[in-house]
Write a structure and sequence with these properties.
Number of helices: 8
Number of domains: 2
Distance between the termini: 24 Å
Number of strands: 7
CATH class of the largest domain: Alpha Beta
CATH architecture of the largest domain: 2-Layer Sandwich
Largest sheet: 4 strands, antiparallel
CATH topology of the largest domain: Ribosomal Protein S8, Chain: A, domain 1
Length: 214
């Protein structure tokens, strides 16, 4: 692709042999980050103690969902417990039962995740209806990595240098699936040459006879 520029500091505009493409820069970077995290996670299953345990304040509904995810999260490297748990017993009280303390995380997240991002990602994760997520550890991992990949990604309304755009497109080209972000949104929209010509009505009768090929 030959980069032409940015549209509204949100979409990369590029020319291809077949037409024109718009690339959503946030969705593209999210895909790149997701596949990088997924590869790193597959290569390193070790866990680490967090220097400062992360506390999540859950709603009543989220607290109920936490029990659904606790075991698969532990198998992924996140050891979390309700505040007040001790030897499997929890202190009484609604305020205590809705607070969750995360004490370990996968080692591969060390360089990319700070406590606030961990808090946001896990909070968003446990707030989702289990029926909308897979029930295997692999499905849980994919969903969580997709959430984590979103935070460091380039946002919309961000002006990019030409070198940054080229690097982003190069990394996207190396992805297993460059066409959708991990949440399923499209990364690339293509406008074919024929579609563009149709929109400009370049095939109207007599066009070529008047001035030749234009």
């Amino acid at each position: 692709m030959r980069v032409l520029g940015q549209l509204h500091d949100t979409y990369v505009v590029a020319e291809t042999p077949d037409g024109l493409v718009l690339v959503d820069q946030h969705a593209a970077d999210e895909r790149v980050n997701y596949e990088r995290l997924r590869e790193a996670f597959a290569d390193d299953a070790t866990t680490q103690m967090l220097a400062q345990p992360v506390e999540l304040e859950l709603t009543a509904g989220e607290a109920a969902l936490f029990d659904e995810y606790r075991e698969p999260l532990e198998r992924l490297g996140f050891r979390a417990e309700r505040a007040g748990d001790s030897g499997g017993r929890r202190a009484d009280g609604p305020e205590t039962s809705r607070r969750v303390v995360v004490r370990t995380a996968p080692t591969v997240l060390d360089a990319t995740l700070d406590p606030e991002l961990l808090r946001d990602a896990l909070g968003e994760f446990v707030s989702t209806d289990p029926d909308q997520r897979g029930d295997t550890v692999e499905a849980v991992a994919d969903d969580l990595l997709a959430d984590l990949a979103c935070y460091p990604s380039i946002t919309g309304n961000t002006s990019l240098r030409e070198g940054s755009v080229v690097e982003l497109l190069r990394e996207l080209d190396d992805c297993e699936n460059p066409y959708a972000c991990p949440h399923g949104r499209p990364v690339i929209i293509e406008f074919g040459e024929e579609e563009i010509e149709d929109r400009f009505e370049r095939d109207y009768p007599g066009h070529a006879g008047r001035r030749g090929e234009e």
